[in-house]
DNA sequence: GTGTCATTCTAACACGTATGAAAAACGTCT
DNA sequence: AGACGTTTTTCATACGTGTTAGAATGACAC
């Protein structure tokens, strides 16, 4: 199955010109007479000529496409972020190549190598929950390859970063629970190596620091796969339920954790919020239809995607090496509903 | 910001060979002595040589990437399908480029032109709800460009198609409502020009044909943007509520329609299923957490993505023009919960 | 008739890779 | 040594585009 497109050569032969003249005419060079320009342009549109992007890429050493690595497309936060990424990228004539890690470190390394070998011009990445070793990213970064982190950032690598105020989001959510009169507030977060987990737990801690009840270590649970696997959430919840005094509220620190925690509580016949209140990070657009409607910390995912992409394109198109890097911090939004 | 990779030329110069020798050595040609092969291979791995995929694409006239066009990534069905697409594509060394139409015909045409001009090797598409004119697809198809339709297919174009048994899915759902004793069952579907809308309404009609109550035209509502816009769903529901006798059940024929219909009913203070029962197509993984848990028709989205991709790659890699086309029809799954 | 300049076009090459054809290099046989 | 065959390497070219340098043409002035 082949599919032939018109080339500059076809035009040249058809009009009895050289390819370079045609090329120049199409690029509206001043060294071509208006008459020939018109001739070429007319014929080109007539046969629906489009310059071959691959040949262009080879010539210009840039592919005009960027890579995106996220944990899961089928996650409201990421799909909304990708929406933002795509809107900016397409607007600037860039293509988007998406890869998923499913929270696996190995997949992240493989997918990164794959994308890098496919000659993308830059990378947007929200690292997987399994990422502890950063060699693969550092190697790329040191070769001057443009990278922008969003959401789950990596502090050790100096480049643009876009995230929300995770500390504040977690602080607000926890404070909300405190104000509602909950005394024993537990937290389930992603793995400790993720920046967002640490920051959100810090916010949770800070909010509790003002109360008389200091949070015991037993109230803080980490989840290896950021809640992707129901089983690990079940285990964390079970452990929390065995504590005395039993927690009367849970704060979940990521999208999948929140919905899966709700699933587990329901399956155990625990009523929300009568038995245990639930507040969590989530970008699902179904939260108000849930039973009960969930109080959530919402992130401006679309906007994050847009900003991250703008920064990346800026990095790619910069002539001189960029030394000053931005660290954009957006605000979260606490949506209070019946679950707390 | 540039980023230089090693080329075959670098190796040739370093070893005092010609580029063609190096090229042949790397491809393990029999006409190269074992000694030089070893020499080249060793040096290549040492400097971490990877062939430039763009140069390869130019040479071989294939980019090893496929395009995907869907309405919305942030839609459970599509994100699951993309998951399936990505798994097969990556496995076969193909890249995936995703574009969204947001149910707009203009965006579909633009995005199609864009992808086609980016020299993708083939296209997977689930047409937008606004698609009435097929010229853009026909033009591409007639030039022999590989296309596979999934989910929202187009009958007029002869190529591989992957879908579910929409008729049966709708029939089962409607029959379920009938068996539960509902008498006045309304339906809200996507626009009439979409194959899935027509088939699902036909299934609904067939189920009702066995009952005494024939469905009046007033019970059948179409939604221009397949439920993407809340407003149009609100309008459809309002009209249904004015009918006498008032419908006691609604069947919604697509993902967004289902959740948005639920949203509208809730906002109007209508209880599900006491006042009106609700059953719909949906692939959301939160349905059992909703209030009430929704009875849904679920599609094997991941599998659809996989199969469609396999067929597309088969089409792309076929030497001779394919004349026999497959029409894969998968089964839906009715998940019965409290909403009906 | 010649020199200067501006205009308009072309030839040749580059990007990185692969390949058919030609040419070396080498060994073997007469 | 010459003819021949086999193995190994190089040359030339192509893919489609853009660009540097140079060539052809004509106009004008001297």
Automatic annotation (TrEMBL), chains A, B:
Keyword Transcription regulation part of the UniProt annotation: yes
A single MF term (Gene Ontology): transcription cis-regulatory region binding
Domain HTH lacI-type: 6-60
Protein name (Swiss-Prot/TrEMBL): LacI family transcriptional regulator
Lineage, opening ranks: Bacteria, Pseudomonadati, Bacteroidota, Chitinophagia, Chitinophagales
PROSITE patterns attached to this UniProt entry: HTH_LACI_2
Species this protein is from: Chitinophaga ginsengisoli
Keyword vocabulary terms for this entry: DNA-binding, Transcription, Transcription regulation
Superkingdom, natural source: Bacteria
